[in-house]
Amino acid sequence: MLAKPKVAFFDFTSCEGCQLTVIDTLQTHLGLLDLVEIVQFREAMSEKGDDYQIAFIEGSCTRESDEQRLRAIRQQAVIVVALGACAHLGGVNAMKNRWPIEDVQTYVYGRAGRDLYESYPARPISDVIEVDYAIPGCPIDRQEFVRTVQYLLQGRKPRLPDHPLCVECKLAENACLNKLGKPCLGPITRAGCHAICPSHGDGCEGCRGFISEANFTYMREILRGHGLSDVEIDAQFTMFNYYQLAAMGVDAPLSQINGNGHRRHAADAEALPASTFAAPKEA
Amino acid sequence: MTRKSTQPAPEAVNGSQVRINVHHVTRVEGHGNIVVDVRNGTLERCELEIIETPRFFEAMLRGRPYTQASHITSRICGICACGHATASLRATERALSVQLSDQTVLLRRLVMHGEMLDSHILHVYMLVAPDFLGVGSVIPLATSHPDIVKRALRMKQFAGDLCAAFAGRHTHPIAMTVGGFTHFPSRQQVQALRERAEALRADVDATVELFATLPYPQFERETEFVALVQPDDYGFIDGMIGSTDHPPRPVDEYRQVTNERLAVHSTAKHTAHQRESYMVGALARFNLKHMHLHPRAQAAAAHLGLSAPCFKPYYNSVAQVVEIVHCVEDVIRLLDTALERGIVPEDPAPVTLRPGARGVGAVDVPRGVLFHEYQIGEDGLIQEANCVIPTGQNLGNIDRDMRALVPTLLSEPEDVITHRLEMLVRAYDPCISCSTHFLNVEFVGK
Fold first, then answer.
1. The CATH number of domain B57-394, selected from 1.10.645.10, 3.40.980.10, 3.40.190.10, 3.90.230.10
2. Is some CB atom of chain A closer than 8 A to the CB atom of B5?
3. ipTM above 0.90, yes or no
4. Which residues 244-273 in chain A show a CB within 8 A of chain B?
5. What is the value of pTM for the model shown?
6. Which among B174, B182, B380 is the nearest to A196, CB-wise?
7. 3-state secondary structure of B81
């Protein structure tokens, strides 16, 4: 690793909350600025350099023009790190993949929106370019970000835990939410966030992705035991992981994956109604 | 026509043709371009293009349990995450006839004050101040003005910790749920926040002093201002929709205010109420309810040269500084109330499901008034959703400001015009990932 590597931050389809978390990390780790040279960070700075070794990328790829930008970043960077659930998993953006793209375009923008605004089903950036490391979560965990930077500066490889969140939840001495009758995806979700949601009384929603040996069948049984319907269970599974589950195809532990909407186009896009609720009046 | 995020920047043709094309305006939240086209000395085109990728949250909410809505919609924006969550919860709660406890109302207000502080501090210190201190960003500022950066980070940390104490996290809140909260801080935590808030007053005073010395452009254009109004409070959650052009309306009538329409140059929808455009945000709130500000905030406004009605868009940042003063004082007051009453863990208030229940939630978030509206079925699944975001409401007003401003700047070099326009857009504190995302300046001919 170089003495003071040049680092750039990029954003694609996202809320920019992970970059904001990076800025917030400076509250406690202002010294990070002495260790790296930030050459590009559009949310925070006007200076712009295209000479960088490490690229942190936030956001999903949701249109063809994004692919070109991603490939250019890959070409320049020695190390590409996916920053947060949108880049790592597709995240919340992929919830729209359940419908043909024309359907969601029409719902939000009306008929005219289909022609005006380019979009396609959301993908994690690893679906487009090779990604070296990921910092999971929605948003990322500050400590994990600092640790990842530390590892990269030391020339070590950051590794993600592959054990369930329940381990950290026990260490935090939380009462098990599933035992208390509150749905929690902790048993199938990758640890690393110190169980922040269960520690605040809210069940895990799976933002860090699933562990490699997730037992979806038993997870479904637990959620059924809480009285959740199949639709509600699917909603739990897919808040951050729609892309992964859809990619599993028939193996996906879902009752209604809706025939992999993320690869479909509407059979008759012209017949789709414009919503009177969300879409603006046509000019 | 498909909107691409990269276009070649046109060159200046000759003296009477200016083509300015600023791609990806920096230090704003999201992606946008500014396009200016002057031909033969006449302004042909001047607008803010929004090139953020559309995200389709409203469509994604369909068929999902109402319990997920606030956690999904907080992901619209990392900066206004608590505001989106609160607007979402209020829409659901009003649809499902939920009666909130006084404690829930109090804690939600504290969370919103935390977010208002966090966002305003980020904006005025890290995004706006570099324009006046002659640097490109907060990063060189850390070397040239370390005391300023450390103060900003200290203030921001308090704001984030305030959100975290009650909501678990600022981006994205965890413990706010339909009908109440799932987590409650200890008395010691609240007491510690109270002490830190009081200690923050010195930083707040220094902030006012710093921003009182900056030379804000005096550009002025009369327009309509819209904000949530309450009878005797400078509040951010619920209330009526106030306007400088029209008597207050109930929030359920928000569509009569917003009148959303598509603009070809923007993936964010534009809005119009009594005239072609209106402005929301700190300056709108100040103009509509400055009389309810804390006396210290009123004194700060006077010191900063801000008085209502103010039609100077660059002064939106000044109004944000005034709101920082107000919020810190109000947080002290609200924390005192919490300590006096004691914070008691309580279950969320119950919901009443019925067919086709509709509700509107309105919250004045840092960048202006935000509306969420849901229709929820008897099965608890969301049937319809609509979100109208502050930056979208400001876009029409930004375009009109730029059109009024550019002709006064034509004798200036392009880099000066560009910088002035970027500063104007930044003054609105656009949050483009919300309204989809934002900024570039495209000059096409002078």
1. 1.10.645.10
2. yes
3. yes
4. none
5. 0.92
6. B174
7. helix
